Amino acid sequence: MSSSLRLASSALRLSKASTASPLRTAAFNGLRAYSSGKTTSLKDTFAAKIPENVEKIKKLKSEYGDKVLGEVTLGQVYGGARGIKSLVWEGSVLDSEEGIRFRGKTIPECQELLPKAPGGTEPLPEGLFWLLLTGEVPSEQQVRDLSAEWAARSDVPKFVEELIDRCPSDLHPMAQFSIAVTALEHESAFAKAYAQGMHKSKYWEHTFEDSMDLIAKLPTIAAKIYRNVYKDGKVAPIQKDKDYGYNLANALGFAENKDFVELMRLYLTIHTDHEGGNVSAHTTHLVGSALSSPYLSLSAGLNGLAGPLHGLANQEVLRWLEKMKEAIGNDLSDKAITDYLWTTLKAGQVVPGYGHAVLRKTDPRYVSQREFAQKHLPDDPMFKLVSQVYKIAPGVLTEHGKTKNPYPNVDAHSGVLLQYYGLTEANYYTVLFGVSRALGVLPQLIMDRAYGMPIERPKSFSTEAYAKLVGATF
C-alpha cells in the first residue's frame, strides 16, 4: 500500500471514529489541514510492524518458554521485588553501568539523531515517542506531522476545564492533574468500543487513538493547573503550527524565552521512560492489563509518580539545595559542602538526588541537563552549587558507606534549571514530569494491546507461607 493510501486509510478510520465526538472531528480536520500527506503516519508505521513482532513473541514463548531466567530470593521478595526479571518493556532498558537506552540508543545518540525544531538544538519529544513505539528514528517530516496531529487533537472538553477551575488552589497540582486525566475517561474511544463488544484485534487501535488524544491534551491541562494555582488563570491556546515542547512552554507562559523552550524539549525527552519497573510505568502497565482505558491507566501511574520516593523527588532536591544555600551562603568551598553533606547524613537523612535503585554511575539524564546548564547558565549561583555538590558528594557518600550508588540521578538537576528560568514553584515540578512520563508509558500500553499481553497477576504468599517454603521456624 502506498504512503498516500495509508494516510487516506488512517484518516478514514479517524473520520469514522469522530462521529461520536466533536473533538475528534476537530482533530481530523486539523490533521488534514497540517499533515503533508507525503509521509507514512505513526499509526501505519506501527501497524506494519505488529505481525512481525507478534510472531517474534510467539516464537520466543514457544521455543524458550521453559528457559530459566534466574532465581528469586526471599530477600528480593521482601525488598520490593528489586531485580526480579518479570516484566516486558520494549521502549527502554536500563543498564546499571551504562544508563538508559531508548530502543537501543543512548541519550547522547538520541540528542544527535532525533529531529529538532528549526533553529533548535535539543531533540523534539515527538521524535522520541515515535522511536519508543516503532523502534525507528522518524524523519523530520514525520515529526512535523506528529506535532500537527497532536496540536489538532489538543482541545480539552469544557467540563474538564471547569473541573480544574473548581479545584481548591491548595490541592496539590499532581492531585489536580490526576483528577483531570481521570475525567477524560468520558472521551475514551477504547471504553466506548469495548462496551459495544469490539474484537480484541481492535484493542490496540482504540488504545492508540486514546493515547494520541490524551497526550495532545496534557499541555493545556498541565498549564491550566499551573496558571490557576500560581498565576492569573489564563492559558495561551495551542498553536497549530508549533511543536509539543513549544506549546507546553507557551501555555505555561514562558515561550518568550527561547532557551526555556529548548529546555522543555530536552526535559520532556529525557524524562519519558526509564524501564517498566519504576512505579509510574509499572502502575500504568498493570492497570492497563485489566483493559482499563489509557486515561484510567495513566491516571493511576500519575498517582504513583506523585510519591516522594518517585517523581516528587526533584522538588525535594531543590528544597535541600535552598536550605544548604541559606546555611553556607556564598561559601562554596570543598569544606563547606563537605560539612553540610555530613550534617545531612548524621541527621539520619539522605542526600536527595543521589543514588538510584538500578544505576551505579552518574545518570546520563543528569549529564544532559548539566551540559545544558554549562551552555546556557554557567554563572548561575545555584548551578555552581549543584556543580560543587556533584564534585564532593560521591566521595562523602562512599565514605559514609550506606549508599550503593553515590552518584546523582536526574532529580539532582532539573529543579535548578526550571528555577533559573522563572518557574520557581517546586510543588508543580512533578506535573511536568507527568507530562513527559505519559510519552514513555503510553507507547508500551499500545504495544501491550497489539501483542495480546495478558492481565498481570503474580503469585503472593503470607509471611507464614514464605517461612514454610524456606523451612524457617520462629
From TrEMBL:
Pfam families: Citrate_synt
Reaction catalysis annotation: oxaloacetate + acetyl-CoA + H2O = citrate + CoA + H(+); propanoyl-CoA + oxaloacetate + H2O = (2S,3S)-2-methylcitrate + CoA + H(+)
Database matches in InterPro entries: Citrate_synth-like_lrg_a-sub, Citrate_synth-like_sm_a-sub, Citrate_synthase, Citrate_synthase_AS, Citrate_synthase_euk, Citrate_synthase_sf
One of the GO biological process terms: carbohydrate metabolic process
This protein's UniProt keywords: Transferase, Transit peptide
GO MF entry, a single one: citrate synthase activity
Active site: 310, 356, 411
Record's GO cellular component terms: mitochondrial matrix
Range of residues in the leader sequence: none
Source taxon at top rank: Eukaryota
Coiled-coil blocks: none
Assigned protein family: Belongs to the citrate synthase family.
Protein name: Citrate synthase
Organism field: Microthyrium microscopicum
